Amino acid sequence: MSEPVLSVRDLRVEFVTRRGILKAIDGVSFDIAKGEVLGVVGESGAGKSVTGSAVIGLIDPPGRIAGGEVRLGGQRIDNLSPEAMRRVRGKRIGMIFQDPLTSLNPLYRVGEQLVETIQTHTNLSNAGARKRAIELLAEVGIPAPERRIDGYPHEFSGGMRQRVVIALALCAEPELIIADEPTTALDVSVQAQIISLLKRLGREHGTAIMLVTHDMGVIAETADRVAVMYSGRIAEIGPVRQVVQTPLHPYAKGLMGAIPTLVQSSDDRLVQIPGSMPRLSAIPPGCPFHPRCPHAWDRCSRDRPDPIQHAEHRVACHLYDANDPTAKAHMIHTHAPLEEGVAS
Ligand SMILES: Nc1ncnc2c1ncn2[C@@H]1O[C@H](COP(=O)(O)OP(=O)(O)OP(=O)(O)O)[C@@H](O)[C@H]1O
């Protein structure tokens, strides 16, 4: 397999607070290949956004990267100077946030912003950059781009504004796009359009996309692979189809059961996982999910589970430890809906 565009190894991020050092990201590893969409999902506070911020070098004090490596196209970027990292962000990594106005200056016409960004990365003349900007606006589905290019951000609807942000992110032909909740602020009907646009552009431009969202529906629609985060760690990662249809980690099983389906009989209840994710200041020893896990046994409150390759999934759960003769028993002696991924 060719070298991944993004490679993250054993990433650790801490926040130094009066209550002590809080481990927000504690040993996260994943790759994203060219043209691939990795969905990063998990409940609020799981560490999705901090992971994205760490990749783009935007962890500000009191936060700090406490360990691990981030490589872009094989080159380490976690140890670059702030200035060098700013150049990487501008050129090699594009960013799309929930609020398009984070990326757009309300005082300038969208065309001026696109042209300026294009000219930062190319030798195009004003006329050439304007032509390229119109092409990009057309590519992201802005109608009448030769006219709309002279509009101000407030003259665009939320969905159209997010399309402009995507065009802006594409100006530099980045290797990686980090999209953090890109559709959360949009109407449901517009969300699907933006998501399919991102997916199509990622494929066409060969861009690797890290898509951060709490919305499993968006992940199921868009991602090639999915990482399920819990308490600053990846509980499970694998191809989206496998993880959505046959999740292995008990937390992922609960989360997948919580995807609302369009057709739902009155008997269908959303699966709720009892309890809540621990605060960073009170992460329990061993597996952070063990207090909520129906399978947990004494080992789970003692030993931190390392990720285990199980078929196409990588899962951080002792249940799948083929070297633990007691693991299987703990799988079998719990209730039925959690049994289909039994370790063999
Ligand atoms: N500046 C900060 N100081 C202290 N803790 C922080 C800081 N920024 C983030 N955190 C903590 O890091 C953890 C991970 O936060 P993060 O924003 O990555 O979660 P998330 O999964 O993206 O959640 P959400 O879906 O709500 O955005 C949380 O417990 C959060 O409180």
Describe, in plain words, how this protein is organized in 3D.
This protein is an alpha/beta fold. Helix content is 31%, strand content 22%. It is built from eleven helices and twelve strands. Strand 1 and strand 2 (20-32) form a beta hairpin. Helix 4 packs across helix 6 (158-170) and helix 6 packs parallel to helix 7. The model is unreliable at 261-270 and 333-344 (pLDDT under 50). Bound molecules: adenosine-5'-triphosphate. Adenosine-5'-triphosphate (ATP) binds next to strand 1, strand 2 and helix 1. It is found in: Cell inner membrane. Belongs to the ABC transporter superfamily. This is ABC transporter ATP-binding protein. It comes from Salinarimonas soli.
SSE topology:
Elements: E1 6-17, E2 20-32, E3 37-41, H1 48-55, E4 63-72, E5 75-76, H2 82-91, E6 93-96, H3 110-121, H4 126-139, H5 145-148, H6 158-170, E7 176-180, H7 188-205, E8 208-212, H8 216-222, E9 225-230, E10 233-239, H9 240-245, H10 250-257, E11 308-310, E12 313-315, H11 327-332
Parallel strand pairs: 3-8, 3-9, 6-7, 7-8
Antiparallel strand pairs: 1-2, 1-4, 4-5, 9-10, 10-12, 11-12
Helix pairs in contact: 3-4, 4-6, 6-7
This protein binds adenosine-5'-triphosphate.
GO molecular function: ATP binding; ATP hydrolysis activity
Protein name: ABC transporter ATP-binding protein
Pfam families: ABC_tran, oligo_HPY
Quick overview:
It is built from 11 helices and 12 strands. The chain is of the alpha/beta class and 344 residues long. It has a domain at 249-263 and 283-344.
Ions, cofactors and other bound molecules: adenosine-5'-triphosphate
Q: Characterize the biggest β-sheet.
A: 8 strands, mixed
Helix content: 25-40%
**Radius of gyration, rounded?**
21 Å
Shape: elongated
- Reading side by side through the largest sheet, how are the strands ordered? 6-7-8-3-9-10-12-11
What amount of the residues lies in strands?
Answer: 15-25%
Low-confidence stretches: 261-270, 333-344
Which class do the helix and strand fractions yield? alpha/beta
Distance, first to last CA: 28 Å
Quickly count the helices: 11
H and E order = EEEHEEHEHHHHEHEHEEHHEEH
Q: Give the number of DSSP strands.
A: 12
Which quaternary structure do these chains form?
Answer: single chain
Mean pLDDT: 89
